[in-house]
Amino acid sequence: MKIPVTxxxxxxxxxxxxxxxxxxxxxxxxxxxxxxxxxxVLAGRPTGYFPVVFYGPSGTGKSLLAKGLIQAWKYCEHxxxxxxxxxxxxxxxxxxxxxxxAVTDLLHRYYRAKLWxxxxxxxxxxxxxxxxQLIQLLDHLRTLQSCVVVVTCQTIPQSISxxxxxxxxxxxxxxxxxxxxxSPETRRCFLEALVKAQQVxxxxxxxxxxxxxxxxxxxxxxxxxRELSLxxxxxxxxxxxxxQKYLAQPSQDATQAMRKxxxxxxxxxxxxxxxxxxxxxxxxxxYARGVAVYLARQILGxxxxxxxxxxxxxxxxxxxxxxxxxxKLLAHDLAISHIVGSLYETLKSLDTS
Length: 353
Known about the structure:
This protein is α/β, with parallel strands linked by helices. The protein has 3 domains: 6-178, P-loop containing nucleotide triphosphate hydrolases (Rossmann fold, 3-Layer(aba) Sandwich); 184-248; 264-349, Chromosomal Replication Initiator Protein Dnaa, Chain: A (Orthogonal Bundle). It contains 17 helices and 7 strands. It has helices at residues 8-12, 34-42, 62-75, 87-99, 103-111, 128-144, 165-172, 184-197, 204-213, 218-231, 240-248, 252-268, 273-277, 283-300, 304-310, 316-332, 334-349; strands spanning 6-7, 26-27, 52-55, 81-86, 113-119, 148-153, 175-178. The strands form 2 sheets. Strands 4-5-6-3-7 form a 5-stranded parallel sheet, with helices on both faces. A two-stranded antiparallel ribbon has the order 1-2.
C-alpha cells in the first residue's frame, strides 16, 4: 500500500477557531512511523513508551518537528507548562542552579511540565553531572506519569559516544523513531507545492529531475529552487537543462568543504587523501572512502555524481553503491558508527556545510 505524502500536523489537526496556520512538517513513506508517534504525544498523556526519541542526520527536520509539535500541542489546548530546550541549555541551567544552590527550584520546573522537548541530546557528551541529573529526572517523571518527554538526536542513542550507559538505556527503553532524509516522492510533492506557492515557472521535467536526482533536506531544496530561478530566464522558467548543469557542478564552498572531509577522514584512518581518491581496494582505504562518501552526502547534501567528481571521477553508480554499503555497515558496526559520529561533529563545528 502506497503511503501518501502529507503535512504531518495538517493530517492530525483541523483548522482551529483562531484561524492560525497549522504547523508544517512534510512526511512521506520514508518516515511512516513519525505520524503515529506524534499522534501519541498529542494525545496529551504518557503512553507505555517513555521517552519518545526521534533521531536522524542533519536535514531531516528534527528542529522543525520539535517546533511544530510545541505549536500543535498549544493548538490542542492542553493545560500545563511546555518546555522546549536544547541539551546545551539544560546543561547551562543546571550548572547555574548548582552554583546558586537552586537545583530544587529548577527540578520543580520540570515536575510541573506536561510536555518537555529536549533537543540534541548528544551535546551532553562527557557532561557526567548533567547526565546523572537527567537520568534521575527522567526516572522521577516516569514515576509521576504526568509529563510527555520527547528527545531528539542525530544518531540512535546507544551509539552516541560519551553518554553514560544508564542514560542510553533510559532513552532506548522508550519509543525510538528514525527520521530519514526526504524520499523522491516527498521531494516531488514539496517541489510542486513550492513552485506553485512562489509562482515560479518550472517545467515538469525539471521538477522530476530535482526530485529524483537532487539530495539534501527540503530547506536545501528550497534554496536550490531559489538559485535556479535566478539563473533562468523569466519567460522560460526553470528547465531541465539548467537543472542538470547546476547539479553537476559543485559550488566553490562545496569544493572547500569536501577537501576538509577528505583531509579529516584520511587522518582518522591513517591514509592519504590521494589513496581515497585513487583505485586502491585495500580494506582500510575502502572504509575511509565509504566514510567520506557518507559524510559528503549527509553534511553537504552533494549528489552522487558530484561526490564522484571528487573521488577520482568515479561514476554515480559506484558512489551510490559505496554509500549504501556504508549505511548498512553503520547499522551494526559500532566502531565505524563511533568514528563517523565523531567526524560528523568535528566537521559540522568547523562550519563545513
